Amino acid sequence: MEKRLALIRIAGKVGLKKKIKDTFNFLRLYNKYTCTVVPSTKNYLGMIIKLNNYITWGEINRETFKLLLEKRGKITKKEKFSEEYIKKKINLTINEFADNFMNFKKEIKDVPGLKNFFKLCPPRGGFERNSTK
């Protein structure tokens, strides 16, 4: 059974070869800290291998995808994705859509206006400096 993979771009744009840039554009990973969800087909796995030094990736589960939709889903620059929006457009709840998406019954493009990539925040510090005098 096929699975869904989450890809996150961790490298910037400076100094990349044209083939790498084209692959990023095909996957909709336009900027640093952008995430997209793709099926684990042979074609996508080939692109992942090509971008291995520039992305991080892994299998995504339904709960994580649901959180990604709720927290980072965008319709326009200022309008966020919401339960009311998806109910109005395709008559499903976010939970139902996440189930259908993970079972390959629906795709992100089936929700009109929903961007098919997610902008994430850069990692935060997480470390403390020791000040020794």
* SSE string: EHEHEHHHE
For the biggest sheet, the summary is: 4 strands, antiparallel
| Low-confidence blocks of residues | none
Q: Please tally the β strands and state the result.
A: 4
Backbone structural class: alpha+beta
Radius of gyration: 17 Å
What attributes does this structure have?
globular; 4 strands; 133 residues; 35% helix; four-stranded antiparallel β-sheet
Quick synopsis:
By secondary structure, this protein is an alpha+beta fold. The chain is about 35% helix and about 15% strand. The chain contains five helices and four strands.
Structural account:
By secondary structure, the chain is of the alpha+beta class. 35% of the residues lie in helices and 14% in strands. It contains 5 helices and 4 strands, in the order E-H-E-H-E-H-H-H-E. The chain has a 4-stranded antiparallel beta sheet, with helices on one face. Helix 3 packs across helix 5. The protein starts with a strand and ends in a 14-residue tail after the last strand.
